[in-house]
Structure formats: structure tokens, C-alpha cells
């Protein structure tokens, strides 16, 4: 009986230790997503709005957006799903997107909050 209790206690401890890092992943992901929220311009005209509820407006289309595995993924109402790698600079006010499809890059500037 004592051996069973020891085994159960050890399993409980190992389970808790294994789950301790889970919140860190979510927090990091949420913090990273916060950088994207806002209105982004390219060449002085509106290009993209990314909202905190996960919806977006991009090139005149509505849709949703998410950040996963170092990429931002837009799912637009037309079925088009542009996916980009990204990097921020200038205190997160400049966003460089590189298309996964063709490698083209575009630089956006954040102005104001949405």
C-alpha cells in the first residue's frame, strides 16, 4: 500500500512539473499577438487592420488572423490565405512581412490603435 502511495505521489509531482511551463507558452504567444493589433500602412495608404478579436481587414477583404510558429496567417473571406514570416523593428511600430508563397517582402508602419 505504501509503495502505491509513493508511486501516485511521484506521478502527481511529475505531472505538475510537466504542466508548469504551459502558461509561459500561452503568455508569450499572447504578448507576440499584441504587437500586431492595430492599423498598418504601406506607402501612406491603409493596407491592413488587425483587431484584438482575431478579425482583420486586408486589401479590402475581411477575414481572420492568427500567429503560429513564427508566421502570421490571414484567412480572408475570398478563401485566399496569405501567410508571412515577420519581424518587428522601431519599438514594434515597423513590421516587415515576407510572403511564404513567393518570398516577396513589404514593410508596414503602425499608426494609431484599433
Structure description:
The chain has helices spanning 2-19, 22-36; strands spanning 38-42, 45-50, 55-58, 61-68, 71-76, 83-89, 94-99, 105-110. With 114 residues, it is an alpha+beta fold. It has one domain (2-110): Beta Barrel (Lipocalin). The protein has an eight-stranded antiparallel β-barrel. It is globular, with a radius of gyration of 20 Å. It starts with a helix and ends with a strand. 11% of the residues are buried.
Strand residue content: 35-45%
Q: What pattern of helices and strands is seen along the backbone?
A: HHEEEEEEEE
Radius of gyration: 20 Å
Describe the largest sheet: 8 strands, antiparallel, barrel
* Gross CATH architecture: Beta Barrel
Low-confidence spans: 16-26
What is the count of structural domains? Answer: 1
* Global outline: globular
End-to-end Cα distance: 60 Å
Q: Give the helix proportion (percent range).
A: 25-40%
Protein traits:
114 residues; alpha+beta; Lipocalin; eight-stranded antiparallel beta barrel; 42% strand; globular
Give a summary of the structure in a few sentences.
This protein is an alpha+beta fold and 114 residues long. It has helices at residues 2-19, 22-36; strands at residues 38-42, 45-50, 55-58, 61-68, 71-76, 83-89, 94-99, 105-110.
Fold blueprint:
Layout: H1 2-19, H2 22-36, E1 38-42, E2 45-50, E3 55-58, E4 61-68, E5 71-76, E6 83-89, E7 94-99, E8 105-110
Antiparallel strand pairs: 1-2, 1-8, 2-3, 3-4, 4-5, 5-6, 6-7, 7-8
Amino acid at each position: 500500500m505504501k509503495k502505491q502511495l509513493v508511486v501516485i505521489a511521484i506521478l502527481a509531482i511529475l505531472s505538475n512539473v510537466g504542466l508548469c511551463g504551459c502558461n509561459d507558452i500561452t503568455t508569450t504567444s499572447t504578448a507576440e499577438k499584441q504587437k500586431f493589433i492595430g492599423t498598418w500602412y504601406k506607402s501612406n495608404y491603409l493596407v491592413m487592420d488587425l483587431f484584438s478579436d482575431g478579425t482583420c481587414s486586408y486589401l479590402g477583404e475581411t477575414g481572420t488572423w492568427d500567429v503560429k510558429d513564427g508566421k502570421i496567417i490571414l484567412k480572408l473571406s475570398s478563401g485566399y490565405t496569405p501567410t508571412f514570416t515577420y519581424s518587428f523593428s522601431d519599438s514594434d511600430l515597423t513590421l516587415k512581412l515576407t510572403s511564404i508563397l513567393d518570398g516577396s517582402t513589404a514593410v508596414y508602419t503602425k499608426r494609431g490603435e484599433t
